[in-house]
Amino acid sequence: MPIQIEPLRAALGARVDGLVASALDRVCRDSLLEALDTHQVLFFPELNPTPAQHTALAGLFGEPEVHIEGRQEDRATARYVDDENLILVIDSGRNAANFWHADATFRESPPGASIIAIRTLPPRGGDTLWLDTYRAFDELTPPIQEMARHLQAIHGHPGVSETNPHPVVRTHPRTGREALWVNRGWTTGLKDVPVRQAEPLLRFFFDTMEQPEYTCRWSWSVGDVAVWDNRCTMHYALHDYGEEYREIHRVMVAGEKPR
Ligand SMILES: O=C(O)CCC(=O)C(=O)O
Ligand SMILES: [Fe+2]
User: Fold this and answer.
1) Is the residue at 175 inside a domain?
2) What is the CATH number of the domain that holds 222?
3) For atom 6 of ligand 1, which residue has the closest CA?
4) How many domains does the chain have?
5) d(Cα 66, Cα 134) in Å, to the nearest integer?
6) How far apart are alpha carbons 16 and 187 in whole angstroms?
7) Protein residue closest via CA to atom 1 of ligand 1
8) Which residues are near ligand 2, the ion (C-beta closer than 5 Å)?
9) What is the per-residue pLDDT across 192-222, written as a single tens digit (0 to 9) for each?
10) Of the N and C termini of the chain, which has fewer Cβ atoms inside 10 Å?
11) Of ligand 1's atoms, which has the minimum distance to the CA of residue 95?
12) pTM to 2 decimal places
């Protein structure tokens, strides 16, 4: 199946046309992975996958993982689309995700990619932003890059299941590129660095990362699908739609221990 890949007019991201959700077996997996490695986030307009097709699409990017809510308080009320708990329902009432983060970085091996389908949209608003964390690293001045390479960050949060240290600079296993890999959502400290030094350093990293120039933005139509590489991007779901309802379905695929 020939697919067309059109880069967005932004720092990262590409739109993929020509994919048919019912014929994923005919898709060239290598060309999709290559597109993800080049563009970091891919958008499939109005792909409208069924739950089985959603999981199958995710399977092209890695091994789908059973979805366990990070926050303990959310576990009892978590809703899944499928019996295997691979597809989590995320609604605007329980988790608006309007903060810069990569997914579940508090885990020892955080997910390698997330694949979401938008199912219900508010009448207006509800776009999502992604940010290029390779670029965030590349734009640091060399002595600061070198310092960052020596640091480990603590990822966790009161109420989430796990806390783990990860390198502040992560090397992508396929592209070999270095990304600045701390995020305001889950990074709480620096390993073996006193709070008084860690806090301003983390604030410096967050402030230098979170620049509009490093981002792309997607305005959703119902049925659109997005896939992002969790190793070299962060994202932010804009909550600019008040009390309106918004619902996405998410599959995550396994990643490795960051190095
Ligand atoms: O709702 C969105 O657009 C993205 C939410 C999010 O952070 C996620 O699914 O990981
Ligand atoms: Fe997220």
Assistant:
1) no
2) 3.60.130.10
3) 97
4) 1
5) 28
6) 32
7) 237
8) 97, 103
9) 999 999 999 999 999 999 999 999 999 999 9
10) C
11) 5
12) 0.96
**Which numbered atom of ligand 1 lies nearest the CA of 116?**
9
pLDDT tens digits, residue range 41-52?
A: 999 999 999 999
pLDDT of 100-143, one tens digit each? 999 999 999 999 999 999 999 999 999 999 999 999 999 999 99
pLDDT given at position 56 = 96
Q: Residue type for 256, please?
A: E
Those residues with Cβ within 8 angstroms of residue 76's Cβ, 6 or more apart along the chain or in another chain: none
| Residues taking part in catalysis | 101, 103, 235, 250
Which residue among 86, 95, 127, 239 is best mutated to probe the pocket of ligand 1, counting the most ligand atoms within 8 A of its Cβ? Answer: 95
CB 216 within 8 A of CB 29: no
235 located within any domain: no
The reply to whether 80 falls in a domain is: yes
Give the C-alpha distances (Å, rounded to integers) separating 191 from 88, 157, 158, 228, 242: 32, 15, 17, 28, 38
Q: Is the pLDDT of residue 1 over 70?
A: no
